Amino acid sequence: MNRKELKDRTMKRIDNKTALDLLKTADLLDLGEQADNIRKDLHPEGRVTFVVDRNINYTNVCINKCTFCAFYREAGHPEAYVLSDDEVFGKIDETLALGGTQILIQGGLHPELGLDYYTGLLKAIKERYTINVHGFSPPEISYLARKHDLTVRETLLVLRHAGLDSIPGGGAEILSDRVREILSPKKIKSSEWLKVMEEAHRIGMRTTATMMFGSVETPEDIIAHLDALRSLQDRTGGFTAFIPWSFQPGNTELNRQAAAKKRNAKIHPATAVDYLKVLALSRIYLDNIRNVQASWVTQGLKLAQVALRFGANDFGSTMIEENVVRAAGVSYTVSKEDIVEAIKGAGFTAAQRDTYYRIIHFF
Fold first, then answer.
1. What pLDDT was estimated at residue 164?
2. Alpha-carbon distances of 147 from 150, 152, 164, rounded to whole Å
3. What is the pLDDT of residue 329?
4. Of 11, 88, 158, 236, which has fewest CB within 10 angstroms of its CB?
5. What is the pLDDT of residue 354?
6. pLDDT tens sequence across 120-167
7. Coarse DSSP helix, strand, coil percentages of the chain, rounded to the nearest 5 percent
8. What is d(CA 60, CA 284) in angstroms, rounded to the nearest whole number?
9. Partners of 245 in the β-ladder
């Protein structure tokens, strides 16, 4: 597909057949140029944003035991933990000292933690701090709803009343139940993930959306995932951003299964080219989601810089602390200053934002 054909086919909303063709056959640089042009149209001011925050994983105990996750531990494992309130407060203090405006708080599905734990933690945080709590992804919320015989909406309202401000897009992986049956058979299905997000949007909570690719999915699965997000955004408008990131196989059960050549565990690892192609296609396809984040956490600083010319307009978070990807053996560490320099080095103005993409200040 040449440059003129690509431009002609992406001037209007693309359908799934066109998107699949682009993903499979489009020239990388032509696809990137089109995505970059869309980014320019949406963000003509020429700036790239980021947020200063910290990931706080309150527990690593999880009953789901996803094959792609190297972070979880079973209850009773010597490395299993639940953070105390004081430990959480210490992490928030450090975040605020570094100019942070948000904490991303999420963890495993701990069989002994009920709704009282979550509401108590939220209330304790809000009593002490003025900070946005971006927390508890759809699997956690759905689990609490089932555990306490509540609807998803009721659970969300209880959590919001206690202090939850917004919801991260964790637990999406690929919104294909065929893929989820391989990666995370105990986790909620695609429809439940989408239901939690729709209910959150309906009560006025904003959320992000994510996609983890480069595991066992096909190109068709990637398009189905993007279609599900675009359709929901058409109905609610509640997603603030989309964050695609690539599966990191190190230390995971899925990687061990693939090494043992188990039939359902054949991994299709994403290369740097794959990452940029999926990112660019996402920017073209998701015409109703304003912001697309680069993933320095999985790609490193240099490729994240390149991503800014493949449709991304946001550098994500400084991520003062990150544990899940690190557990898989990938550990990129950057400071706020590193991010600012990377953004400027790519030819953009750097701006710190809050959770809702309001600018705090420029650099």
1. 98
2. 8, 11, 19
3. 43
4. 11
5. 97
6. 999 999 999 999 999 999 999 999 999 999 999 999 999 999 999 999
7. 45, 15, 40
8. 36
9. 212
Spatial neighbors of 236 by CB under 8 A, at least 6 apart, are: 197, 198, 201, 202
Mean of the pLDDT values across residues 33-43? 97
How buried is residue 288: exposed, middle or buried, by Cβ count under 10 Å (0-12/13-18/19+)? middle
pLDDT at 327: 47
Residue 331 pLDDT exceeds 80:
no
Q: Which of 357, 361, 362, 360 is nearest to 42 (CA)?
A: 357
Q: Between 312 and 70, whose confidence is greater?
A: 312
Helices 85-97/115-128 angle, 10° precision? 40
Residue 68 pLDDT: 73
CA–CA separation, 128 and 126 (whole Å): 5
- Cβ partners under 8 Å of residue 112, min gap 6: 75
pLDDT at position 193 is: 98
> Which residues, in sequence order, are CB contacts of 213 under 8 Å at separation 6+?
174, 222, 244, 245, 246, 247, 270, 274, 278
Decide: 200 and 238 in contact? Cβ < 8 Å: yes
User: Out of 1.10.150.20, 3.30.200.100, 2.60.120.260, 3.20.20.70, which CATH number does the structure's domain 33-348 have?
Assistant: 3.20.20.70
Q: Is the pLDDT of residue 6 over 50?
A: no
Q: Which of 184, 292, 304 is nearest to 239 (CA)?
A: 292
Nearest-angstrom CA–CA distance, 196 and 201:
9
Could you give the CA distance from residue 214 to residue 219 in angstroms, rounded to a whole number? 10
> Is residue 357 left, alpha or beta, with left meaning phi > 0 and alpha meaning psi from -120 to 50?
left
- Is the pLDDT assigned to residue 295 strictly greater than 80? yes
Q: Quick one: which H or E segment has residue 49?
A: strand 47-51
Average pLDDT over residues 346-356: 97
For residue 143, give every residue at least 6 positions away whose Cβ sits within 8 Å of its Cβ, in sequence order, or none. Answer: 109, 188
Classify residue 270 as exposed, middle or buried by CB count within 10 Å of its CB (0-12, 13-18, 19+).
buried
Higher pLDDT, 69 or 330: 69
Length of the chain: 363
